[in-house]
Amino acid sequence: MSLPVAVILYTVRDQAAADLRGTLKRIAELGYDGVKLCGFYGHTPEEVKALADEFGLQIPSAHVSIVDMLADPDKTFSDYAKAGCKYVAIPHVGEDRRVGGELFEQTIEDIRVLGKKAKEYGLQLMYHNHDFEFDKVGDEFHIDYIYRNVDEELLNAEFDTCWVRVAGQNPAGYLRKYAGRCPVVHLKDFSGERNAHMYELIGTDVQVDMTQPFELRPVGYGVNDFPSILKAAEEVGTKWLVVEQDRPSLDRDEFGCIELSRNYLRTLGY
After folding, report:
1. What is the pTM of this model?
2. Helix axis angle, 73-82 relative to 45-54, nearest 10°?
3. In whole angstroms, what is the distance from residue 88 CA to residue 67 CA?
4. Residue 139: how many CB atoms within 10 A of its CB?
5. The domain 5-267: what is its CATH number?
């Protein structure tokens, strides 16, 4: 079995904002099967779907902030359903919703409410991790606390293989731990060690110190063991693989990086 491969438009966000049609065309030419949305780039959901259809691209999923979902859940889920999505993921939570934050417990209830609302529009809610979800709640990782306290029907896992590994855990092992609950898997690579400057690379801080010994890389150009990850993904029933790279590297631009990722995955039969 060879799983379909999408790329998250956040990786080429500047290009998508300037020329969505041209960006989708180029993604299709690189051999991707689909794209993951992060907004609509000034278009209606129907227009985005039509552009994707024009180039034979599917739109399996989207990243939407939990704040935006809670602000207007009906419009949010209706819009992404119109765009063709089957899955909508919470991509990141602020410190107030993490271990020790004032909204930590409230977030569990918020996720339950959003998971139920997503179902009304034929969508499945997912949670996308970073490394901080591997902080402990008592003797349990935050990520496991979330999945234990929200029913599988309401919340699926969207493991980011880079951040699982950065946190010192085994991405393939985590996929198997949540077998049947991982419809979408993010493929992301890196080099170097966990440090205080990592999040500058994904846009959460203003300054980016590129001299720090941590770099996000195209898939297959870092330390992650993708043959084992992909084997686990197939075993646990994953439906889509999503390439993600928050900033370009290796002296390539964003398209150059996603081309390297796509070509590497072809060598593994994807």
Report:
1. 0.94
2. 20
3. 13
4. 5
5. 3.20.20.150
Chain centroid to CA 176: how far? 18
pLDDT along the chain (270 residues), means of 10: 93 98 98 98 98 98 98 98 98 95 96 98 98 95 98 98 96 98 97 67 47 84 97 98 96 98 98
Instruction: Select from 73, 42, 44, 77 the least CA-distant residue to 61.
Output: 77
List the chain domain ranges. Answer: 5-267
Q: Quick one: which of 148, 121, 228 has its CA closest to 185?
A: 228
Torsion of CA 64, 70, 73, 76, to 10 degrees: -30
**Residues contacting residue 219 through CB under 8 Å, at least 6 positions apart:** 187, 188, 189, 226, 243, 245, 260, 261, 264, 265
CA–CA–CA angle 88, 93, 96 (5° rounding): 145
